[in-house]
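[audit] Reproducing an earlier prediction to check determinism. Same input, same settings, fresh worker. If the tokens differ from the archived copy the diff job will pick it up downstream; this log only records the rerun itself.
[audit] input (860 residues):
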Amino acid sequence: MQILTRNEATHRAATLEVSAIDVTVDVTDATDPSQATYPVTSVLTLVAREERTFIDIAGQVTSVLLNGAEHPFEDDEDRVWVEGLPVGQTITLEVRALAHYSRSGEGLHRYTDPEDGEVYLYTQFEPNDAHRAWPCIDQPDVKPAWTFHVVAPAQWVVFSNGVEVGAQPVDNGGVRRDFSATPPLSSYITAIVAGPWSVVEGGTWSGGASDGGHVELELRLACRRTLARYLDFEDVFEVTRAGLDFFHERYGITFPWGSYDQIYVPEYNLGAMENPGCITFNEAYISRSTPTFSERQRRANTTLHEMCHMWFGDLATPAWWDDLWLKESFAENQGASAIASATQYTGEWANFAMNRKIWAYTQDQMPTTHPIAADIPDVAAAKTNFDGITYAKGAAVLKQLVAWVGEDAFYEGARRYFDKHRFGATSLGDLLEALEAASNQELGSWKDAWLDTPGPSTLSASWVTDPVGAISDFTLHQSGQACAGVLRPHRVTVSTWRAADGALERTHVFDVRIDGESAPIDPEGVLAVPGGAVGVDLVVINDDDLTYAISRLDERSTNVALAYVGTIEAPITRAVIWASLWNAVRDGLADPRRFIVAVLGAVPAETEPAIRDRLLLFVGEAISSFLPGSARAQVHEEVLATTSRLSKESAETDADAWRAYTRAFIAEFAARGGDEFEAAVRACAACENPDIAWRARRALAARGLADEQTIAAWRDADGSGEAARMSAEALASLPDEAARSRAWESVNSDTLSNDYLSATLAGLQASSWEGASGIPEAVERLRSYWESHTIGMSLRYAAGVLDLGVDVDREGSVEASVHLLRSWLAANEDAPAQLRRIVVEHLDDFERRERVQRLWGSDQ
């Protein structure tokens, strides 16, 4: 497999002008599992400035035609080289090939539904897998018009980027469906989806924009037939319409694509993909149970994230992957903005602070951190840069930019950017030019501080209090220690709080700008609080979460927050405080035991579902990662007892809360057992809610309380594709040598699809088996696996294996894992850089755990 480099892509774009690609794909034999390939033909209309070039194609090339005549070619792995091209003339280059159906989620993926035997196909390409499906120029800055023709079984439904304009029977018994030509489009967002999909019509959305255009969009949703009755399409269509209204109003550019189909597909590697007119989503967003508010909110987030890409990414496309943030950070930021202001999910920014932003802080504190505007030498590096920095840190930094220059200037800059670069390939400089013109501000220094330097800033506050409660020398401090000494410009909200009658009330709010080591905060009037009381009990930095920085609470504020954070009315403030407390736990500055106790006390009164659900996940992570082994038994029993009680109390009154507490209860039981709670878990395993039932079944399997026959019976009684995958995870988690051996054999057999590989490795990780059986050997195989598989499968394998760790005593010690990964890195100094990066990141995580556990273990 050859990896496309930035230098190669730059040269090819400069010497090859591709105006159109016409693709014909024949998948009429896709239902036959013995057929591993399908015929595909691409006709490229181009002008070459050199006599020799290459076309990307991972299949078997059968012929190449130049202007309709057979032409010699050289087949070179993922490329076909052609020479003797007429220079400066418009020509057609036709490449015929046999491409492979995929089971890795890359290229054209084929899935057989175990429930009814139906076959489904879909494509997934980002960043560089279009050439696995058809011959093309597979790089983002080459944007031809695409026309697709798909020959498929007559009863199938077919989607693509264009609108279907014709259908006619063909000799092999299939039907050829022709689609309209697209506007200029990068290869990684071309798509076809084919199969016996169930389709829901959503009517027409009409919209105009300030550029004078108008569009009438037919809205459709689709999913597998066996999932159709579970698709709560009303909510999806409501969010879709709200998002289209939001982006049309703010961007002023008419929706540039001719259709809006959203398809939920199985075994998906991502949450979703922004193929214009043919957006694909992970079908995990469809729940066989009634989806909770949090689950619908997550789906809304993804829906509007992908919708933003119709402009940021699809209309104006980053020319190379080092500007990946130009689309992902914007979609992350704008998706959250749209949800919070245009849908019922008004707490989305609190959700962002508690979830996505924590992902960013975690990634940004690793030794592999990188600037938002990263250096990406090839597409392998691009694949590993779809991370918390590119998505969530970039989104948080954009939120700070909006606060700094103002919302009106930001959207005016976006409109200028789209208007000038519609259907083009862009760079960071293009966007900054538009934003500077709109805001009348120089942004070069902002770019240097925020986009070109890695690591998080750290903000804290100090003050002096006199005997009567008056404060002076109130100061905001900035440390650049974690970001190479860079002191960034921040606009933040600092608030002061007083504890009274068992609750916190905000006394003052300060709008503070800081671009150095410190900035004064005027404390005048801090004593003028309701009721005439004096003093400050809590100071919250970055109260509205406007900037990207780790905020440190002082000792008194920490104590008060742990006791009273749940009494604060504003969800965004609660989220900011909880995020500060969690970062302190990760950094060894706050006792994980106190944090867990505070969470258990606060969640019953938490009104924002996303905050509640995230806090419960924090509890499990705090125990497994940061609590010393000597303290785990007592805390474990307290967590089991509390979540069990809360589950029972909410069972009849709040279905969403019941799901949240029951999930937390089952997860804690799965991790560490608990004899007195076994009956409750077995009851969950027999309940009618399939999500809860399968979580409980997998927990029983992991504890050795269910055998193979029982798991098979559960699977057969359910019959769904989800049950098949979850039973594979349960079987892999059985804590006996024979089960583990079979699981490792399947992992190493190369017979598993992407989804089943992850499920099997997850089962091995969940098992209560005490020992390192198979793990050192799997770590040793990391390099050979990486060098012999696709990037997507390699990432799944590496992450799954490294997540296992070598926690032999199951009491929290990660010393063996640290030693194992250090040894691997020492022995593999010349391993691929992206693989070494993943190992380094897992090693850093294990070292952090070891450091924090030792700190609090010595504090017993």
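[audit] rerun output stored. Observation attached for the diff report: Residues 833-857 form the longest helix (25 residues).
[audit] end
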